[in-house]
Amino acid sequence: MARLPRLTVAGYPHHIIQRGNNRQAIFAGPEDYRTLLEMLDEHARKSQVAVHGYVLMSNHFHLLATPETAEGVPQMMQAVGRRYVRYFNDRQARTGTLWEGRYRSTLIQAERYLLACMVYIDLNPVRAGIAEAPADYPWSSHAHYVGQRTDRLVTPHPLWWELGNTPFAREAAYRELVQSGLSASQERALTDSALRGWALGEADYVADLQRRTERRVAKSRAGRPFAASKGTK
């Protein structure tokens, strides 16, 4: 069966996953992480894509981003993917592919899933057992949102600004969301939607989205909504 084209719509948050081929490492040292971040920053700006969150893991990375045009995300990912492979192959004296095929992505309903997706991204290193807390991991956007550093790659979504009236209040509120965590079903929904390419949202959201694109956006009815709130483990 032919693969569905990627679902990309301007103005909607996209959850994006790019994996290393055969789960192999895509970074050999700190300089590689920094280089990929610099490439993402450059091409996000060129492609008019606002990156709300990210995490770079040893063999894959996640992005949460909103493009201004339908071409923004594909343009950014293609440019970054090609440049980084050339860079990495040159440094490691290797040839051939680095990525596990094309990147995976889908759209998520901002009001119901955007903050949850940010939490999901921040908790990747904790789930993988390589950090005790998101703040201990240097290669994610978490530090930006809790006031530990300013990250030029990050453009906060309007929903993040609604977490509080001051920077301190927003940082505290977001820190609490991350500490509360997500349930296994929430993590599974965010992972599966991105890998399978089906939009993640309530029925009205999915129906509205379907009217904006010829590409089928859902395999079945939309999943149940959830929010990243205190006490949700």
Structural description of this entry:
The protein has 233 residues and is of the alpha+beta class. It has a single domain, classed as Alpha-Beta Plaits (2-Layer Sandwich). It is globular. The chain has a four-stranded antiparallel sheet, with helices on both faces. Strand 2 (49-56) and strand 3 (60-67) form a beta hairpin. Helix 1 packs antiparallel against helix 2. It starts with 13 loop residues before the first strand and ends in a 23-residue tail after the last helix. It has helices at residues 30-46, 72-92, 110-122, 124-127, 142-145, 158-161, 167-180, 184-196, 203-210, and strands spanning 14-19, 49-56, 60-67, 104-107. It is built from nine helices and four strands.
